Amino acid sequence: MLLWKRIAAVCAAASLLAAGTAAAAQPPDGVSRPDAIIRYTEYGIPHIVANDWLNLGFGQGFAAAKDNICAIADVAVTTRAERSRWLGPDAAPTSGVSQASTNLASDLYFQGLNESGVIERLLSAPAPRGPYREVRELIRGYVEGVNKYLRTVEITDPACRGAGWLKPITELDVHRHSHAVGMIFGQGGVADSITASLPGAPPAGGGTEQMLGETGIGSNAIAIGSAASANGRGVSLANPHLPWQLSGTRLWQSQVTLPGKLDVSGAGIPGIPLMWLGHNETAAWSGTATDTTRTYTLFELKLVPGSPTTYLVDGKPERMRRDDVSVLSRKADGTLERVVRPQWTTRYGPVTTRLGQRKLPWTASSAFAIADANAGNLGMTNSMFAIARGRTAGEMIGAVRETQGLPWMNILATDDRGRVEFSQIHGVPHVTDEKAARCNTPLGKELFDADGVAVLDGSRTACAWGRDRDAVRPGVFGPSGLPSLSRSDYLANSNDSYWLFNPAEPKTGFPRIVGPARYEQNMRTRGGFVEIADQLKKGGFTGQAMRDLMFSNRDHAAELVRVDVVAMCRTMPGMDAACAALAGWDGRSDTGSRGALLFDRFWSLVDRMGPEIWRIPFDVKDPVHTPNTLDTGNAAIRKAFSDAVAQLKAANIPLDAPYGDNHYVVRDGRKIPLGGGAAGRGVYNSLGGPWDPARGYTEFTHGGTYLHVVEFNGTGCPDTTTLLTYSQSANPASAHHSDQTELYSRKQWVTERYCEKDILASPSLEVVRVSRR
């Protein structure tokens, strides 16, 4: 309490002394005593201080609403199943908390969840299945903070200004948001099908295959320990890849401090308190998603003849539950109509007639249900809270083990002592390889080895998910059944499986559903390990060395094949200009690199061809350096090069055009050139977006978001640099809508102000004192 009073007094004085901040020092409603203090430093980064959990949440909610009120409201109107009412049924949702293709499908999906009462049941459960007391307080305060901002400040963001759906949020909205994020890759991925599946009808829905790498969500993370750092202490890199234009997974940076209990800085999702990634005084964590882990299974049902909504379990008939889900939808003339659609649910989960592009027909004899390991998981906020309080890497991973609330994230942690830890403790169905061999249907046998998708026999209770004694929830693997690793040098992941977080210590022995082992790694994984090894040849990692790695923009695919491609090009008639462009390229994806775009288009065609492109195949004994040596005698590869040249010519782009002239985002009518590139080329600084044959690249849709490099130094004030690639605010009227995007274009970082002396020394310091009254 004394520390809180001292901070309040210092901040009040600082606010009066800082130029232009005297008015901001007063709370919006004129109350003199604050419940939370928000200090803004460069680039609009808020540092929130309060004297209890409720007020800490309140301050963070108020600050989050300032930058992203429309994003918060967009998710709330989605999980309330009201998009069709306010925005029409046919438009594509912009929240990204499911893969529904239309507002109507989204509403029907979420209304079905809401009517099931699943979240209310989870909220009534004791912790850790239900929220910790502190987390409940944080969320309650967060909601008050968002609503206080909405009530007292004029909304300027055109995305929601004056909209009927811009309403106060509730605690239930926050929990629905968290729950939905957990099911993006399971039930949420087949929302179209869940809401439209009917017996005997053609398979409903569509969407993308349920694999993380195809959703625009991925990441890089590196944790450096004492044996690989210059000072014998930890260095952390966070580089999550998320959609840039979806509100439900947008990241936002802040620091929250409850003196004596919590002091954490990092990034989380507006609408949910606390951080997905970040650090405190002595430990830091980052995270990734694993493309090859499945958080769901299918169950194939044997139907009773003559009754397509009744299935057999151990020879006994069991009826599906029919729920007639209704939502309000706006018609073209502006009036509302009630739309009613049936949804069918089994003991395993809802019926679906698609899994991505795979049709799962509901016939007279069989149907399919999707079972999601996170359907009964509301623990993500517990995990985020507990990780943030860990004082060491081991304590952070211990927090993951205790809470078991992460739906699909790997965690890589390091600390001031130089220990590094990794865990893949998240929601994975308890399907051992033995059970898969015994219970997979013919479709399951086809999908399981290749993709890890189990399709289990729903007619036998013996084929239901198992349970571990140390699992908080039934039906999932407990911590003892999932991968973890501790080392003193380094751990790294770029969305590949648990098998190779460090090439010196491959992990094996886990069920296929957890991920494969002994398989070809993605190009970004391979490039990352090469760059780490290159740095260690020069010396231990520093913060600067990690920043250099992050923005090296090395193209690992080009490092493997460019010499051979140039030689191939010189044997192809009429390709002199293309050969010169590729030969003169610096091999990087910097904004000024000439020839990078030509290789980008070439590799986008070659990368989809499969392992036959290589002369030297994958070798499990050398997974970082194999496969290699492009088979330039392959006619398909030669054609891919000709097609890449034709693509640039069709878009009127010179073959040696500077990369940034055609690799950019537009903010306020200005093109901001961007380095980085496709993950398939092994560019660590990953960015992706659609290619328009007439114009080339347009707006980027996913890639690097929040970046941090944390270097511990033994003082309790780690040397940290951060960057939020799309900037703090989604509001184009904000001064912080594109300022960090400009930094990203120039490979520049923000020096974090974590300790009090640094916050108060900021030349941009602005102090806002807010009260709940």
Automatic annotation (TrEMBL):
Gene Ontology MF terms: hydrolase activity, acting on carbon-nitrogen (but not peptide) bonds, in linear amides
Keyword set, alphabetical order: Hydrolase, Signal, Zymogen
Annotated signal peptide: 1-24
InterPro entries: Ntn_hydrolases_N, Penicillin_amidase_A-knob, Penicillin_amidase_dom1, Penicillin_amidase_N_B-knob, S45
GO-annotated biological processes: antibiotic biosynthetic process
Family: Belongs to the peptidase S45 family.
Protein name: Penicillin amidase family protein
Species annotation: Amycolatopsis decaplanina DSM 44594
